[in-house]
Amino acid sequence: MNSENQPAKLTTASGKPYYEHENSLTAGPRGPVLLEDFILHEKLAHFNRERTPERVVHAKGSGAYGTFTVTHDITKYTKARLFNEIGKETRVFLRFSTVGGEKGSADSERDPRGFAVKFYTEDGNWDLVGNNTPVFFIKDPKKFPDFIHTQKRDPRTNTKSATMMWDFWSLNPESLHQVVILMSDRGTPASYRHMHGFGSHTFSFINQDNERFFVKFHFKTLQGIQNFTDSEATVMRGMDPDQAQRDLIAAIERGDFPRWALKVQIMPEAEAATYKWNPFDLTKVWSQKDYPLIDVGVLELNEIPDNYFAHVEQAAFAPAHLVNGIGFSPDRMLQGRILSYPDAHRYRIGANYEQIPVNRCPFTVNNYQRDGAMRVDANGGSAPNYFPNSFDNIKADASYKEPAQNLGSNVMADWFDRNAEGENDHYTQPGDLFRLMTPEGKKNTISNIVGAMQGIDGPKRAEIINRQLCHFFRADIGLGLGIAQGLRVDVSSFAGGTLHAN
């Protein structure tokens, strides 16, 4: 650490202190630059790599940290631990964004606004990735690349094209609900603080009794709704293209912390099949007369990140990131985003994007992911990188298993045991194969297995050998005996299972 009277030394990225930060090494005062000046190389090479690939959508954004506080009891609907106690606080990070605009576009463009919240819970990070609208333009993920192409630049002129946009919308009438919202003054919010946020998709709540409810999330701004008219938004684009970013920072710095009330709509699972609209259609809302808003808590933003790139630009949200007590639904767009969002982050900022501080779970993380570019932790040390194994104590906790989901027509979505009754005979066919071999073939097979298993070492050697011998014995007693003898294992302890005799 440096005292106030001792300035910090200028160093390279590897920690070497150096002096010449402004002048290049040259052959004489007016001569060419020499290849030897590695400080010059480091500065220019890093400069060339300072920009990560721009997000295809939601490229321009603003973000802040804050807290979510539970104000009402919803534990009869969900066992998610962040909701389990009135007054409980959970740290959050919220990123606002425009959707179709590029990194340098104006904040006041007519566009939906992204509203993505990361909750840092003790059961992992929950990402609620939505917009400032409760619906979207399309209902099937196969349509998404085509739709976004119409919001970007014409491949011939490289300009935005009203023709592309309206051509797509006119050919896809399901977009009309969102188009009407977009073309109203709600399409040009006056600031991020003065708009609502929505999870938009239909999700699941699962309670302690493993009952499933379908749920929609609403964040209601406590600052009140304020929108620009079209002419006001046009003027603002020229006056200050970063107006929403500037407004958010100024409000938090003066202590005027933006707040939203989180509310939910709850639909019992059985009612989904008979509701007048498809409850999983992202172009539709649920009537609040049918499913009134239920109060949950308050989200407050109170901390501006000290470095925009480290926190806002590297923030990565994915609808796949849920926590115990919150699940998916048959919403097709949600199903598509489960794949596409994490895939986009792995491309943009790397396979280990969840180790970046803004994305990292602050609580326990145990898994078997290893290696990859920019791995910044101990990479699992010497622990095994496969499961199951005989060495670590990581166990799958059955209390986190989700209930099966009824998809209708007697079809259940569940994690079915691959070795359930009727699928668990792993011994008859290997035994039959061994018994078909010639005496020489049997001898060679046993010899080859013995040779391979002799390489097993370490404190778990006997355990692994004995476990595998049980499988061989169940397939064929002669196979098991031959291998046991080759490994010099006492077979008197092997009594379980149905054994085949030669």
Q: What does this protein look like?
A:
With 502 residues, the chain is of the alpha+beta class. It folds into three domains: 1-50, Irregular (Cytochrome C Oxidase, Chain J), CATH 4.10.91.20; 61-355, Catalase HpII,  Chain A, domain 1 (Beta Barrel); 428-493, no CATH class. It is built from twelve helices and twelve strands. It has helices spanning 38-48, 144-151, 162-171, 176-183, 230-239, 243-253, 308-313, 332-349, 428-436, 439-453, 461-475, 477-487, and strands at 61-70, 89-98, 113-121, 124-131, 197-198, 203-206, 212-221, 259-268, 294-303, 326-327, 405-406, 412-413. Strands 1, 2, 3, 4, 5, 6, 7, 8, 9 and 10 form a ten-stranded antiparallel beta sheet that branches. α10 (439-453) packs across α12 (477-487). The radius of gyration is 30 Å and the shape is globular. The relative contact order is 0.10.
Primary descriptors:
about 500 residues, alpha+beta, globular, disordered C terminus, 3 domains, 12 helices, Catalase HpII,  Chain A, domain 1, Cytochrome C Oxidase, Chain J
Unreliable sequence segments: 496-502
> Span between N and C termini?
75 Å
CATH fold-level topology of the largest domain: Catalase HpII,  Chain A, domain 1
What is the CATH C-level name of the largest domain?
Mainly Beta
The helix tally amounts to 12
Class by helix and strand content? Answer: alpha+beta
